[in-house]
Amino acid sequence: VCVAGYGQSDGNEILQLIPPPTLLTKEAQGLCPERDFKVECGGFSERPVYSLKYVPDTSLLVTSGPPDSSLQVWQVSAEDSDVIKSVSTIATENGTEQSWAKIATISARAPWVLHGSRLDRVQITEVESRKNVYTAASRGSEELSTLAFLDCNTLLLCCATGRLCLADIRQPQSLVEATAVPSAPCTEQWCMGTRHGAQGSEPSSQPVARLSSRGLLTLTDLRKTSELLALAKARVPSPGSGAEFLCVSWAPALEGYLAISGFDGTVHVYDTQSWDSSGREAEPIFIHKGHAFGGAGGSGDPPLVTVHTWHLQKPRTLLSAASDGSLHVWDWVQPCGKC
Amino acid sequence: MPEIKVTPLGAGQDVGRSCILVSIAGKNVMLDCGMHMGYNDDRRFPDFSYITQNGRLTDFLDCVIISHFHLDHCGALPYFSEMVGYDGPIYMTHPTKAICPILLEDYRKITVDKKGETNFFTSQMIKDCMKKVVAVHLHQTVQVDEELEIKAYYAGHVLGAAMFQIKVGCESVVYTGDYNMTPDRHLGAAWIDKCRPDLLITESTYATTIRDSKRCRERDFLKKVHETVERGGKVLIPVFALGRAQELCILLETFWERMNLKAPIYFSTGLTEKANHYYKLFITWTNQKIRKTFVQRNMFEFKHIKAFDRAFADNPGPMVVFATPGMLHAGQSLQIFRKWAGNEKNMVIMPGYCVQGTVGHKILSGQRKLEMEGRQILEVKMQVEYMSFSAHADAKGIMQLIRQAEPSNVLLVHGEAKKMEFLKQKIEQEFHVSCFMPANGETTTILTNPCIPVDISLGLLKRETAIGPVPDAKKPKLMHGSLLMKDNSFRLVSPEQALKELGLAEHQLRFTCRVHIQDPRKEHETVLRVYNHLKGILKDYSVQHLPDGSITVESILIQATAHSEDQGTKVLLVSWTYQDEELGSYLTSLLKKGLPQST
């Protein structure tokens, strides 16, 4: 688990943590008194870390954050040291605005990072050589909110406006647009979550979820982008905070489950299998409220959940982090049908 | 440069055998004398041959300080003082002095009686060792000898645990032992004042740990106990009389009260009284809440927790029992364990580390069939849980303590160097101090900058304060004077007074330099050219052209004469006193470059 700070001042830390043994293995293996995380290694970043991704099959990390859209590459585990070292910077041409790049990584043909702050600045760079491998055709200059590799050839881009764009990197000039979102006030911002299906399945067979800052959730099947698979509304507080921390993700081990966060100190879990396209309010399966209660209480603003993710193996376990520096690992108990 | 030398003793990078040698201003102090519980041979003791190859250690050490009663900090003490040989003072807090011998004896019993070891200290040795102990109070300055003094600070962690400040003159070292920066239910948090030691020595064993929230840990424990009791099972918690047991008791008592539970909770006979006795005796060592309520009601006399009687173990129905000893190696806890092990509804919760060879250790490693005395096999069907409730400082706690004490240097012991690099950088960046991480057996030398107090004469003080900006208490001021060292006193006086006192005459040094300048004009014209040139360049200095034809720059004199043989060359005589050396040299090199054409 890697955590990083996004404070304004110097000296943000990046920490790679090893969860306690009880969380690492699938079944309980022997006894262990530890419930604590261990800092395996740590590093210092001069700029705030807004986005952090591992590069699969390597010991590298890529981070991005203001003031510009360049990426920082870090070396994580060295034999003789526990310091995360800055290895290189992937520079990009900067606009005048204070933007930062969204990133996604893959290591299919080589370790690649897909990055960009706007729709007309999307590129894929090889991490180690910093060579540009692909530049997406420009189709507008909207701000991007989420990027993803659907497989080693297919990219999915989600703009802050909710617009989805598909691209095949073998055909540089193509950028296929997917459905727009239901009309909404223009201040509404969107982000997306994608899911990898079982090995060998078509990447576009998995529905793509989009979440708006008003709590609207749409599900789209990429093979049939003309209509929405489902539309629902989450019961969330009206958008007080910005859309910076909006996050939606699919459960890797539970079919049809997704989680959303970024509105307040809670994380909601939904079962989308019962959803239709009516746009009705959906009932969450579970709401994790720990961050709101966990803090010192009283002083300062209530914590805001900044990001969440699912445990890769344990089906109902999630990890979430909040603006007060807390990290929670939690699960929920499915109420049984009888009794 | 004065220096402080620190050497952690012991072989190997292992955790758990604390023993640190500190050499400060000629005094040698040993901090803690712990035993490693995992080894059965000499590796469990620190390697004292570092101090001296043979013979007793009394002459080599000025004192020994023990931080608290855990065996990895005091376990080797009887071996050290009676078997290797040391007769000097051993300092520790009052609770530590009271509890240490009990733990030592307990451990001796397991090692010798149960495991049959021979090279181990005896009961008598423990007693003889404790006779050398001098007990100290918190925040009490203890003079070990004329120059060496020590002071204990509250460390939390366990009853009587202390952090120690060791001071010789103006050099000081603070050793933390084990400490806890967050208060728990019966102990407060560690605290130290802004004593600004030259060096802070802290253990870094848990530095890479980010602690789980206490609430979650406690909830986990309570859940397990509750679930077992709800299904009618019995919970056995083997504990040592003092330490985490009190914490767990207070936790259970509060939970039982809140949930209105009826199942009985028992605490081993003898244990309750002993624990109560020590906590009452050392009430000032517990946290504020306990002290406040102690007047009305003894915190350690519980409503739901009663004294245990052997017969109760056979009672049907759910119950929770705290029993000693903690590793299930003998006594009551083992007896109860044997009775309850066969029922899968029951549970045993081990709250700490168990030494190899004990039943506790065996069941924690997964063994479910144990061989007991008389070749009997015991099948363990009860649930075995392992929960650590130890109170140690993590990285955040270490940073907090450094912030409180403001040391000039930090030394981390008991961590692997490779795994401490990040913490070292973090400390160096945040506090701008040097951070050291010696391996066991490696000596670290820390240079100190001691302050030496000096008397200043009134005349000099008056004179210096008249010059320059108004003195600011927060800013150092550069002064000019003479330091007289006589007998053992230092005095700062003006140079004139020093000369007078010593009966010496002052010498004046004056330098003169000749610079040749090509100039066919008359001397006074050359002088004028030089004057204008210098005036133009040396805007911050007082450049004057005197009526007698010479130029002064501040107190430096420049005169021009014609060269005796060559009328086209003028010779400039530049003359200055030793005090104006810098300006004099500068002027000379400036003039040597020649005069600009246009003047």
UniProtKB/TrEMBL annotation, chain A:
<dbReference type="InterPro" id="IPR015943">
    <property type="entry name" value="WD40/YVTN_repeat-like_dom_sf"/>
</dbReference>
<dbReference type="InterPro" id="IPR036322">
    <property type="entry name" value="WD40_repeat_dom_sf"/>
</dbReference>
<protein>
    <submittedName>
        <fullName>WDR73 protein</fullName>
    </submittedName>
</protein>
<dbReference type="InterPro" id="IPR042795">
    <property type="entry name" value="Wdr73"/>
</dbReference>
<dbReference type="GO" id="GO:0005829">
    <property type="term" value="C:cytosol"/>
</dbReference>
<dbReference type="GO" id="GO:0000922">
    <property type="term" value="C:spindle pole"/>
</dbReference>
<dbReference type="GO" id="GO:0031122">
    <property type="term" value="P:cytoplasmic microtubule organization"/>
</dbReference>
<dbReference type="InterPro" id="IPR001680">
    <property type="entry name" value="WD40_rpt"/>
</dbReference>
TrEMBL record, chain B:
<keyword id="KW-0479">Metal-binding</keyword>
<dbReference type="InterPro" id="IPR048662">
    <property type="entry name" value="IntS11_C"/>
</dbReference>
<dbReference type="InterPro" id="IPR041897">
    <property type="entry name" value="INTS11-like_MBL-fold"/>
</dbReference>
<dbReference type="InterPro" id="IPR011108">
    <property type="entry name" value="RMMBL"/>
</dbReference>
<dbReference type="GO" id="GO:0005737">
    <property type="term" value="C:cytoplasm"/>
</dbReference>
<feature type="domain" description="Beta-Casp">
    <location>
        <begin position="245"/>
        <end position="363"/>
    </location>
</feature>
<dbReference type="Pfam" id="PF07521">
    <property type="entry name" value="RMMBL"/>
</dbReference>
<dbReference type="InterPro" id="IPR050698">
    <property type="entry name" value="MBL"/>
</dbReference>
<dbReference type="Pfam" id="PF21386">
    <property type="entry name" value="IntS11_C"/>
</dbReference>
<keyword id="KW-0378">Hydrolase</keyword>
<dbReference type="Pfam" id="PF16661">
    <property type="entry name" value="Lactamase_B_6"/>
</dbReference>
<keyword id="KW-0539">Nucleus</keyword>
<dbReference type="InterPro" id="IPR022712">
    <property type="entry name" value="Beta_Casp"/>
</dbReference>
<feature type="domain" description="Metallo-beta-lactamase">
    <location>
        <begin position="16"/>
        <end position="233"/>
    </location>
</feature>
<dbReference type="GO" id="GO:0004521">
    <property type="term" value="F:RNA endonuclease activity"/>
</dbReference>
<protein>
    <recommendedName>
        <fullName>Integrator complex subunit 11</fullName>
    </recommendedName>
</protein>
<comment type="similarity">
    <text>Belongs to the metallo-beta-lactamase superfamily. RNA-metabolizing metallo-beta-lactamase-like family. INTS11 subfamily.</text>
</comment>
<keyword id="KW-0963">Cytoplasm</keyword>
<dbReference type="GO" id="GO:0046872">
    <property type="term" value="F:metal ion binding"/>
</dbReference>
<dbReference type="GO" id="GO:0005634">
    <property type="term" value="C:nucleus"/>
</dbReference>
<dbReference type="InterPro" id="IPR001279">
    <property type="entry name" value="Metallo-B-lactamas"/>
</dbReference>
<dbReference type="GO" id="GO:0016787">
    <property type="term" value="F:hydrolase activity"/>
</dbReference>
